[in-house]
Every structure is written in C-alpha cells, then in structure tokens.
Amino acid sequence: MYCTGGIRCEKASAWFKHHGFEDVNQLHGGIIQYAREIKDQGLPSKFVGKNFVFDERLGERITDDVISECHQCGASAITMNCKNDDCHLLFIQCDACAEKMQGCCTHDCQQIYNLPIEEQRKLRKGRKRPIRCQFIALDCAPICDKS
Length: 147
Hints:
With 147 residues, the chain is of the alpha+beta class. Helices cover 31% and strands 11% of the residues.
C-alpha cells in the first residue's frame, strides 16, 4: 500500500501496526516528496505513473507511464469524474471514449449531461443524495474501437 503522505498514511500505518504487521515503513513527505527528491538527484523512479490525489487534480504525474486501462474499452487511460453532475463517478476513460461519451461513464449519464441545466436540476430536485451510476453492472459492450 502507498499513500501521499497525509493523515491517511498516519492512520493506515497505525492500523497495520495494531493488527500485527511489523515491517511498516513510511516515506517522509509521501510519494510527492519522493518524486521531488529523486528528480533533484537524477535517480530513476521506482514509482510508475500518476499518483492519485483527493482533490480536483485527481493525480500528480510522477512518470510519463500510463498504467491504467479505460473502463469502457481497455485502452491506456486516465482517471476522471463523470461529467454528469448527478453521477460524478470517479472512473478511468481513454481519450477516444471521452470524446464519444463526452466524459460520461454511461450513455444514460451522457443523455442527462446533454439536457439543459434547468432539466438536470429538475431531475435532481428533492433527492437526498445523487444516484450513482453503476456502469460496470450494466450491459456495457465496448463503445469505442481500440484501433
């Protein structure tokens, strides 16, 4: 397990130690500090790809490698949030699927995303919380070619 060096790291390391793990280590400053230090020292990174972060950036690039795969077609892809504000599902989508799906995780979300904002608000009105799409549970054939 790795984390970015914040409170989640502190909690996770305490949990592991409490549950009997003896070899628990932390990088001071987390992956981001590690990336800065190896860059300054001209060393190769043992961390590959993009480090996920819990804000609007969704990640900070450590190396140029892309190791995640599109949930819709399997091509190399990046993490993003569904553009349908009522869904906002965090998922992985390639550029081709993002273009075809307008950054949405399902065709249902794409239809809602394309409604006028007033219509979208009417759909959400009165709900205690948004309905999350579960595109993995739907009958989702690949929507874009890998070629």
